[in-house]
Amino acid sequence: MALFSPTSPNTTDSETGEDVWRHTPLVPAESVAGRALASVIAIMTFLAALTAGFAFVLADASHEWRGSVGQEMTIQVTPRAGRDIEADAAKAAQIAGGFSGVTEARAFTRAQSEELLSPWLGAGLDLSQLPTPRMIVVRRDRQAPLDEIGLRAELDAALPNAMLDNHGAWMQRLDTMAQVVVSAAIGIFLLVLTAMALAIGFATRGAMAGNRDIIEALHFVGAADGFIARQFQFHFLRLGLRGGVAGGLAAILLFWTLGFLSRQWTTSASGEQAEALFGSFSLGWSGVAVIAGISLAVALLTGLMSRAIVYRSLGSLR
Amino acid sequence: MVRFENVGLRYQMGAEILRDISFEIAPRTFQFLTGPSGAGKTTLLRLILLSLAPTRGLITLFGHDAALLDKTAITEVRRKVGVVFQDFRLLDHLTTYQNVALPLRVQERDEASYRAEVTELLSWVGLGERMHVYPPVLSGGEKQRAAIARALIMRPELLLADEPTGNVDPSLARRLMRLFSELHKSGTSVVIATHDLALMDQFDGARRLVLGDGRLHIYE
Fold first, then answer.
1. How large is the ipTM?
2. Which distant-in-sequence residues (6+ apart) come within 8 Å of B203 by Cβ?
3. Residue B60 has what pLDDT?
4. Which residues contact A230 (CB under 8 A, 6 or more apart)?
5. Nearest-5° Cα angle at A194, A188 to A199
6. Which pLDDT tens digit goes with each residue over A69-99?
7. Do B97 and A20 touch (CB under 8 A)?
């Protein structure tokens, strides 16, 4: 512009040494509303990741229950007049052990049976005086299939007082219970997700309200709507990522801590109960990936929401 | 350049605050828009800037019917118009330099391509030593000059200034008016909204658009 005399600009601030020509973001990087929004996002992501993580832990635990129950079968030998129950139990174990697909068939000894029944019948009882059945635990081979019908037929032919139980009814109950528990966890996760979307929507709207003067100034100096929307979308995407990553990491850390503690407590009775119910509290890579996905989705949601709000503000400005 | 034909404006169901406004701003002209406080000077400037839509009448800007312009076209038109707002509308988190460079930055131009131009302009308006400070520490007059520099940096075809000398001392006011006069001579049409009669008297040849009772009277 010929009206003005030229100057030679400095490149750094004499006091701070910063590059004074560096582009400052058009939307202020730090503000009270921005920090509040990042906190809301972090908390909501933490809660959503927690519910998703628990759904994973429960699904894994129920898989473990079903796996461990499904790997075992029981042969029950009932006492009958004129038959030697010890010999029948040994015979049943021998028949089962000889089948392909069985890794172990172990008859409970009298002492082990007494120990099993002692919580109900009291200690120091003599089973020979009672018509109590004897159990044979049959452990299946995970790799090789077992001819269950053949085993049942052979047992029926050799021992009329032996009955094979593959725990089918128990498995079905476990299946139903596991499905209910996992479905409930998924339902809670979806509710938390909805609450999170609403909370982030309100918080983004609040944070955007404080930036209306910036939208107007940019609008009147000739910025295109897309340019303005992009500035806000990147700003809120960054805020969303900050909050989402913080919340996701906190949830992963919590699961890691619970897993560590559960491993320390497995020797105690309550620890065993907890492990039986929830497994090892281990999320696995798929759980971590889902939490990372939630964090990313939250950031994207925040960015897109801010974009929609900017366009609405610009629409009202004309 | 700008043409108003029987333009009227009312807010919702209230009485018309501007009635039958008809005028034209030709290229390379200089005019004052004046009238008592509350007469509608700022409202008329907002109509020219297309930030308000009239309730009746026809506004033509740079040969286009304003009612038919879409958002992209409005942005294009707005880039030909420099505006000095009464309340400055500087962004507090940007330095004076960054505020003045804003119209160029929003066009996604490379910063190095306009740095010399912006610093020259800042020096000319007396803000050469204040270009890296933030608006909250600028005085009212300095903010005014920064706002004027921002309006001029795009070398607009039309400059709208709302009370541009309201916050400066008389000597700076004269200097700013000389700047507007120079701009006019270099080909920019200038509209200055003011109720400062002394200021207008310094430019005897300038056209006066006087608003009163919602109507516009033109004194050539």
1. 0.86
2. B30, B32, B177, B181
3. 95
4. none
5. 120
6. 778 888 988 888 888 888 888 888 888 888 8
7. yes
pLDDT by position in tens, chain A (length 318): 444 444 444 455 555 555 666 778 888 877 777 888 889 889 989 998 988 888 888 777 777 777 777 788 889 888 888 888 888 888 888 888 888 888 888 888 777 777 777 777 777 767 667 777 888 888 888 788 888 888 888 888 888 888 888 877 777 787 788 788 888 888 888 888 888 888 877 877 777 778 888 888 898 898 998 898 888 888 888 989 999 999 999 999 998 888 888 777 766 666 666 666 666 667 778 888 989 999 998 888 888 888 888 888 777 766
Going from the C-alpha of A308 to that of each of A47, A48, A202, A204, A220, the distances in angstroms are: 26, 24, 13, 11, 20
B179 in A contact zone (CB under 8 Å): yes
Q: What is the CA radius of gyration of chain B?
A: 17
The partner residue sitting opposite B71, judged by closest CB among A3, A23, A225, is A225
- Which amino acid is residue B48, in one-letter code? I
* Pairwise CA distance, residues A218 & A107, whole Å: 83
> What does A268-299 look like in DSSP terms, one character per residue?
SHHHHHHHHHHTT---HHHHHHHHHHHHHHHH
Whether the pTM exceeds 0.90: the reply is no
Chain B residues inside the 8 Å CB shell of A9: 115-116, 119
Judged by a CB distance cut-off of 8 A, whether residue B73 touches chain A is no
What is the number of other CB atoms lying within 10 angstroms of the CB of residue A129?
7
Per this entry, what is the length of chain A? Answer: 318
Per the listing, tokens 């560590």 go with: A260
What pairs with residue A102 in β-bridges?
A140
| Sheet arrangement for strand A134-140 | A102-107, A134-140, A72-77, A162-165
Q: How far is CA A85 from the centre of its chain?
A: 48
Q: What is the DSSP string of A207-237?
A: HHHTTHHHHHHHHHTT--HHHHHHHHHHHHH
Side chain identity, residue A160: P
B53 inside 8 A of chain A by CB? yes
Q: A28: which chain B residues are within 8 Å (Cβ-Cβ)?
A: 93
Residue B69 contacts A where some CB pair is shorter than 8 Å: no
User: Helical H runs in chain A?
Assistant: 32-70, 85-97, 110-121, 148-158, 168-209, 212-220, 225-265, 269-278, 284-317
**Which B residues in the span 81-100 are in contact with A, Cβ-Cβ below 8 Å?**
83, 85, 89-91, 93-95, 97-98
Give DSSP secondary structure letters for B120-177: HHHHHTT-GGGTTS-GGGS-HHHHHHHHHHHHHTT--SEEEEESTTTTS-HHHHHHHH
* Chain A residues lying within 8 Å of B74, measured CB to CB: 318
Q: How many CB atoms lie within 10 A of CB B34?
A: 21
Separation CA A207–CA B218 (nearest Å) = 46
Whether B116 contacts B191, CB under 8 Å: no
Q: Strands A102-107 and A134-140: what pairing? A: antiparallel
